[in-house]
Amino acid sequence: MCRMFYTQGWVTGTGGGISIRVHDTVVMAPSGVQKERMRPEDMYQLDAKTFEIRESPRVKPAPHKPPKLSECAPLFQAAYEMRGAGAVLHSHSLNAVLASLIDEQSNEFSVTHLEMIKGIAGHGYHDSCVVPIIENTARECELTDRLREAIQAYPKASAVLVRRHGVYVWGPTWVAAKTQAECYDYLFEAAVRMRGMGIDASKSLVSQPLKTLGNGLSKHVNGDAAVGPAAKKRRLDGHTLPTAVVLDIEGTVLPLSFVADTLFPYAQKHLRSHLEQTWDSLETQADISLLRQQVAADSAAGSTTAMTQRVPAAGDGKDAVLAAVIANVEAAMAVDEKNPALKTLQGHIWHAGWEAGDLHACLFDDVPPALAQWHSQGIKVYIYSSGSRAAQADLFSHTQQGDMRQYLSGFFDTSSGPKEAATSYANIGLSIGAANPAQIVFATDTMAEAKAAGDVGWCPVLVKRPGNKPLPVSHGMKMITSLEAILRI
After folding, report:
1. pLDDT tens for residues 46-56?
2. Any known ligand binding at 165?
3. Which of 210, 280, 378, 413 has the most CB atoms at less than 10 Å from its CB?
4. Which of 293, 326, 354 represents a domain boundary (last residue)?
5. 375 and 324 in one domain?
6. How confident is the model at residue 182, as a pLDDT?
7. 124 shares its domain with 142
8. Total count of domains within the chain
9. What is the pLDDT of residues 16-36, one digit of tens each?
10. What is the structure's pLDDT at 236?
11. Is residue 115 flagged as an active site residue?
12. Which residues are Zn(2+)-binding (predicted)?
């Protein structure tokens, strides 16, 4: 595989990395070596669970440098742990780099209606194939937390793009990982070339007719307008089905009280212990850095915020930093402030709770069957919440009714924009790739959010649930009391 990927231009200049799991061992190519000249004795052998080195490559005489374990190792470990991978590959493919730059403001790469999408596990020709994009760092090992969050937030993806760097790809076997890498690279190149032709690869062309066929019947890209599997999939009892359904969380799929009565108290109770126990981890130090930046930015902008206490620099001592972080977070949680720094830290605290079995989300009874029904009909379902994407994925993977992620195509948070801003829904629509905004249904319990979605052409639906805040008497919006009613509006 090292030689094969070299000829593809993916691991030239000693870049990239390749690893394969064999029972309880991970075999991994070293860093800084000519990949096309690799031999069996040049490989590292790592413990598959701990990633501790079991056997190092033999040391070659000068001018060869001593072998070095790649900084990809902790990133590879993330895919092995979180996806049960049998092989994980890292490529510096030029196609991957260019694909990450198609839209530098987006945290996703998306394509649809391309034949090679069928080569990506769990995807078909009509699907939107979405790959998360994370920002690059000076050192590769510093990408680990970002990669883990992306893997958690995008359960259907078998790859993560690193902007201006390359791509990580995995599969259950080395054959599957190789296939995924080749198919993704084809899709990256196709999207880049289509962009040069003025075509957006993330959007379907189903509304554009093809030439009239010999029998005089005008066909369409997605099948005949009246007959065929595509048309049947898009109709139910005379109704045209939406392309996508986007769901809010609180007051829509679970009680409004769940966050206030369960998640917030859990975060408050475990805030100090979480910080103290994970203080030296890259994740927690990144959370603190983000909080420090948030407080400084809000102060400089004169923003109204509950987080007003300056967070000292790391060199000022742990006690001072810890006290400031706790004071700011507790103040922000008391008024339910929704800033990225707070939501990221909360998500990490909750993640520990989900994993420990301390937390379980209880969805409304109509939610699981609705998700399953939409999934069977080919309707894509997404979540849009103020909580981080990783926190959303945690919630839906730990419900009392089971893991719901199998029915979801992706998660959106406030990195797409505030929930009451119309531009946020426009951004999400671009990521989803619906040919017509009216094909996207958005269900929420909040009037301002519904209006913002409607302003960009979406089909907003207000959800009335027990315990929700009262809605204006003459709101003029469609309203439902069960998600199963969405297809009947």
Report:
1. 888 888 888 88
2. yes
3. 413
4. 354
5. no
6. 92
7. yes
8. 3
9. 788 999 888 998 887 766 666
10. 43
11. yes
12. 90, 92, 165
User: Looking at the structure, do residues 71 and 155 belong to the same domain, yes or no?
Assistant: yes
Q: Which of 361, 357, 391 is nearest to 257 (CA)?
A: 361
For residue 338, tell me if it sits in a domain.
yes
User: Is 72 annotated as a binding-site member?
Assistant: yes
> Confidence class of residue 137 from pLDDT cuts 50, 70 and 90?
confident
Q: What's the sign of the alpha-carbon dihedral 303, 309, 314, 316?
A: positive
Both 247 and 373 in one domain: the answer is yes
The CA-based angle 72-46-43, given to 5 degrees, is 75
Structural domain of 39: 2-196
3-class DSSP state of 419: coil
Residue 92 marked ligand-binding: yes
Active-site hit among 115, 135, 276, 355: 115
pLDDT in tens, 241-269: 899 999 999 999 999 999 889 999 999 99
Examine residue 135 and state whether it is found in any structural domain, yes or no. Answer: yes
Q: Which residue is associated with the tokens 């850095």?
A: 289
* Start-to-end CA span in the chain (Å): 53
Length reported for the chain: 489
Q: What is the pLDDT of residue 453?
A: 97
Would you say 403 and 397 are in contact if contact means Cβ atoms under 8 Å apart?
yes
pTM: 0.53
